[in-house]
Write a structure and sequence with these properties.
There is one protein chain. By secondary structure, the protein is α+β, with helices and mostly antiparallel strands. Helix content is 44%, strand content 16%. The strands form 5 sheets. Strands 12-15-16-17-14-13 form a 6-stranded antiparallel beta sheet. Strands 8-7-4-9-10 form a 5-stranded mixed beta sheet, sandwiched between helices. The longest helix has 47 residues.
Length: 656
């Protein structure tokens, strides 16, 4: 037998010494689980000692592990004192005996459960005066275990680890490593895994409640970073840069990004019916005035073509900005769009229009002010629609689940209302942003002095063309996206390396350039022949579908006018009519951007083939003449040098 002090017992059981003394008085260690040694230093000349073997087996193992005597696993679950185990076994015996007694009484013809139980309790209490109970208590024991399982009948209140709250530091760190993950595991599951690790190491730990408190005490920034992610942490706890918008003039910098609307619209499904989709929008906004200068809303994921088209819309209306602030997505980093350093393709859009390009910090909404504008769009426009779906499934209105798809706005209807809202409502509504002074974007744009950078229409047309990588002309023309583009005379360029430009608005035409950016020819897509359908067949089927759709829409009458498409139209139109429209912006200076290369390209495109060949012939003749003149000059220099050398040699002979 091993006797230990109350302090050692408290250390093993992770509790106070006062808790150990209280357990002794309550008999939880049994009558032989402790002793007092007289004549020793202690209270009243007596020193309390605890029998190690009276502690739970796991606590005994932990004691030996701490002393380095051996390393053995323990079980940090269902750990009971000797007294708890004894009482649990007595309860199990009482439940088991009652089961036998109950069967005997039923065979004797007694059916009332209450009378049988009361009779058994009276007999048991008479036979076991040291362990008595009531019928209500017996009923509760049977509810926990009718088979009389001691483990299920142990009184777990006030066990050996009652009052235990401290967690060993190494196990607390282990728990934190499990808990602080973006997958957000529960405290209970992390506690279970920590229990298993503590068992393996032979360490006694407190219960689940202690770990719940420990999890609640972890600083909020740490929780934000490791359980919510870097973006969540940065948006809520990291300082952000404040912009001085007064240093910008209109058109100094445009910002662009895509937005997936939280509104469902309907589009044809290709089988005669409809399907619901959420439209994508691509936007350009002037940073100084917050004025939306261009947008495109469509069905389909955003890409570089949409970016170029929407940018072209803005440039045609308001001129060329001096710089652009862009998202870090791949579509914004396409080599032929806003890249200013790539040498693998001919000049990009940014180079041709002399744009400074700035990319925002990845995954940081504050780096792009247009993100906050998207939230305004959803609040003021998106939530008006009965098909508003919210930003996530939890925020989705229940009414959307039962709404008939014919009550959804079509994509065309949504685009029409969207454009009216953006350009007639938002752009004319007062803005409370920094340095806006309560004015609308249109008012700020027209009231601030700025210069407009313009570019010739032909130069803009070719600048907005997409550039595809180097291709080799084949006998069937130039291949692009699996389609062959061909024109008469392409045979003269077979085997030559070329670059192809195309306009996103006219993808069926390719403009072919050589490696020096000289225009060669334009080519059209080759139309593939079908097997059976004709154009008339497709036209007839499309007409039938249009009639069916028209009839379906005319037959629908909404009950609540304000929640219909027409109702939303009237709301937007009313807001638009109530806005004070700013006067048209008049630029102080019109600045012409010259691009000799593209101007020459436009001039060559306008020529006929004969004129272009004549010009090329003159250029070759001029180049040959210059080469001949250079050769004559080189021969003259050689002759002069020869005369000088002969003269020097003659003088040397005379002097000798």
């Amino acid at each position: 037998m091993t006797w230990i002090s109350p302090q050692e017992a408290a250390s093993i059981l992770l509790c106070d010494v006062s808790t150990i003394r209280r357990k002794v008085k309550s008999g939880e260690f049994g009558s032989k689980g402790f002793r007092y040694i007289t004549g020793a230093v202690g209270r009243g000349g007596k020193r309390l000692e605890i029998l190690l073997e009276a502690l739970p087996a796991e606590a005994q193992t932990a004691y030996h592990n701490a002393r380095g005597e051996f390393q053995a696993p323990i079980i940090n679950r269902e750990q009971y004192t000797l007294s708890q185990r004894q009482k649990g076994e007595l309860r199990a015996l009482a439940v088991s005996e009652y089961g036998k007694y109950r069967r005997e009484q039923r065979k004797a013809g007694r059916d009332k459960e209450t009378e049988i139980m009361q009779a058994f309790v009276a007999r048991w209490n008479a036979q076991h005066p040291d362990f008595t109970f009531t019928a209500k208590t017996l009923y509760e024991w049977r509810r926990k275990s009718k088979a009389g399982n001691p483990d299920k009948l142990v009184d777990k209140r006030g066990g050996y680890n009652r009052g235990k709250s401290s967690i060993p530091n190494d196990m607390l760190e282990y728990f934190k490593h499990l808990f602080l993950q973006e997958s957000k595991p529960s405290v209970a599951n992390c506690f279970r895994l920590t229990q298993l690790e503590a068992d393996r190491r032979g360490i006694v730990i407190p219960g689940l409640r202690a770990f719940e408190l420990a999890a609640n005490n972890i600083p909020a920034p740490i929780i934000a970073l490791y359980r919510e992610g870097g973006k969540y942490f940065s948006d809520r706890y990291m300082p952000y840069t404040e912009r001085d918008y007064e240093k910008l003039a209109p058109n100094d910098r445009w910002v662009s990004d895509h937005h997936l609307w939280d509104v469902f619209v309907r589009v044809p499904d290709g089988a005669g019916g409809w399907k619901a989709i959420r439209p994508w929008g691509t936007y350009w906004m002037d940073m100084r005035t917050r004025k939306v200068v261009a947008s495109i809303v469509r069905n389909g994921n955003p890409n570089s073509d949409v970016i170029v088209c929407s940018f072209g819309i803005g440039v045609e209306a308001y001129g060329v900005p001096r710089s652009v602030l862009l998202d870090n997505g791949r579509d914004y980093k396409a080599r032929d769009v806003f890249n200013t350093e790539c040498e693998e393709v001919i000049n990009s859009l940014a180079v041709n229009l002399q744009l400074d390009t700035v990319y925002a910090i990845p995954y940081n909404a504050k780096a792009k002010p247009i993100e906050r504008t998207f939230d305004t769009f959803e609040q003021q426009f998106g939530k008006l629609h009965p098909t508003y779906a919210g930003s996530n499934a939890k925020a989705r209105p229940e009414s959307l689940q039962t709404l008939d798809i014919m009550n959804y706005p079509t994509l065309d209807e949504f685009i029409a209302m969207h454009d009216q809202y953006v350009y007639e409502v938002y752009n004319n509504a007062s803005h409370d942003g920094s340095y806006m002074y309560g004015k609308s974007p249109n008012q700020m744009y027209s009231s601030l002095p700025f210069s407009v950078r313009r570019v010739a229409k032909e130069v803009l047309y070719f600048s907005l063309m997409r550039v595809k990588g180097k291709r080799i002309v084949q006998r069937n023309g130039v291949t692009f996206n699996g389609v062959h583009y061909y024109r008469d005379g392409v045979i003269n360029f077979i085997g030559k390396a070329v670059y192809a430009r195309y306009s996103p608005k006219q993808p069926d035409i390719l403009y072919i350039f050589d490696e020096n950016e000289n225009y060669l020819f334009s080519a059209n897509a080759i139309v593939k022949l079908g097997f059976a359908p004709t154009a008339a067949d497709y036209e007839r089927e499309n007409t039938r579908r249009k009639k069916a759709r028209h009839a379906a829409l005319d037959g629908y009458t909404p009950n609540k006018h304000v929640r219909t498409v027409d109702g939303v139209k009237e709301l937007i139109a009313g807001q638009a009519a109530a806005q004070r429209k700013a006067p048209e912006a008049i630029p102080v200076v019109t600045e012409l951007i010259r691009n000799p290369q593209l101007e020459e390209t436009a001039r060559r495109v306008a020529m006929s083939d004969a004129e272009r060949q004549y010009q090329d012939a003159l250029a070759k003749q001029e180049a040959a003449k210059q080469a001949h003149d250079a050769q004559k000059k080189r021969y003259a220099e050689i002759f002069k040098q020869s005369l000088a050398e002969n003269h020097q040699q003659h003088r040397s002979v005379v002097n000798d």
